[in-house]
Amino acid sequence: MKFDKQKHLLNFEEMDSYHKDFVEIYNSLENDSSEAYKNVMLKILEQTRLHFCNEEELMQKYNYPRLKEHSDEHKKVLYEMEYFINGANTKIGRNILKSYFLEGLPNWFDTHLLSMDSDLSSFLKEKTNL
Ligand SMILES: [Fe+2]
Ligand SMILES: [Fe+2]
């Protein structure tokens, strides 16, 4: 996965730095073993909690009108990540985790940045006069 400036850069530093870290952790996958997928997913889960907390604090601080919608989506994604990680104790569960990592997660990342995070960053830029 590549951090694509066209698609991923929102020009709001605080958010961009979490998104760059996400891509960096994503790319730290060591090999094709189930263990490696699980380890990298655990790191992504931990970083995503911080990433979402940061956005939610910004939303609260600046009274973002779509806070509920955006934080509900965050909750859903954290739940999904936990669900797939916890399910990785069977062969099928490990395959599901792998395909979530390879397809689901990058698709979600692109869509979320292009929709909800873009909307939030435009709002914040206006509020903070950047
Ligand atoms: Fe984000
Ligand atoms: Fe977000």
Structure in words:
It is a single chain. The chain has one domain: Four Helix Bundle (Hemerythrin (Met), subunit A), CATH 1.20.120. It has about 130 residues and is mostly helical. The protein contains five helices and no strands. α3 runs parallel beside α5. Helix content is about 80%, strand content about 0%.
Please name the defining characteristics of this protein.
Four Helix Bundle (Hemerythrin (Met), subunit A), binds fe (ii) ion
Sequence-ordered SSE layout with sheet pairings:
Elements: H1 5-8, H2 13-26, H3 34-61, H4 67-86, H5 91-128
Helix pairs in contact: 2-3, 3-4, 3-5, 4-5
Could you write a compact summary of the structure shown?
With 130 residues, the protein is mainly α. The chain contains 5 helices and no strands. The chain binds fe (ii) ion (2 copies).
Provide the residue-averaged pLDDT: 97
Q: So how many helices?
A: 5
Q: What is bound: which ligands? A: fe (ii) ion
Q: What is the H/E order?
A: HHHHH
**CATH C-level name:** Mainly Alpha
Determine the structural class based on helices, strands and strand pairing: mainly alpha
Beta content: under 5%
CATH architecture: Up-down Bundle
* Major β-sheet profile: none
Keywords: Iron, Metal-binding, Oxygen transport, Transport
GO molecular function: metal ion binding; oxygen carrier activity
Domain Hemerythrin-like: 13-120
Pfam families: Hemerythrin
